[in-house]
Amino acid sequence: MLLSCFLTLSIGLAAFCGDRLLDFYTNKILRAFIDNATHGAVGLLTWAVVVVSLPEGRKYYIFSRLVDVILCGFAACAIDVDHITKPFVKSPNIKITKTEWLTVLCWLLSAASISHHIRDGTRRGLWFWPFGSTSPIPYTMYVTLLCLLPFAEREMMILTVRSRITVADILNIQV
């Protein structure tokens, strides 16, 4: 419980520090690196909270808990490989429906993706293809959402692993 609280606070701190670092630099390459590193740190910490707060006795991981935490950090970074246009990978609603075939991997990738999109949402809003963008997320809401995300992920993951419900079932999507 204490580790979970510490990691949750670390999510907010990583986001805040990464955002403040961006204020100090104008070099586009350095800013892109800082932004991407912050996405990775937030994704990594998000999955770390999920992993440490899961109940014992079930295999809630793909490779190992540590490797999965690192994988989530890399996945959160990989979303920005384009940095030119907004292809389908920038739309959270499409990504969620394409990953239901492996329950644990689905939740790992959704943690990476959603944390990434929430961070980007403070500047550009959330982009839902084909509907367009929302207005930018207020900063306090952004940090709060990042800190609540791993707990929502954990609860949904436990529900889907226990009952074999897919993400498509939860979202009522016909595949």
TrEMBL record:
List the record's Gene Ontology CC terms alphabetically. Answer: membrane
Membrane topology per the record?
Multi-pass membrane protein
* UniProt main location, coarse: membrane
| UniProt subcellular location | Membrane
Keywords in alphabetical order: Membrane, Transmembrane, Transmembrane helix
Q: Which InterPro entries match?
A: TMEM267 (IPR026572)
What PANTHER family does the record tag this protein with? TRANSMEMBRANE PROTEIN 267
* Name of the protein in its database record: Transmembrane protein 267
Q: What is the lineage of its organism?
A: Eukaryota, Metazoa, Ecdysozoa, Arthropoda, Hexapoda
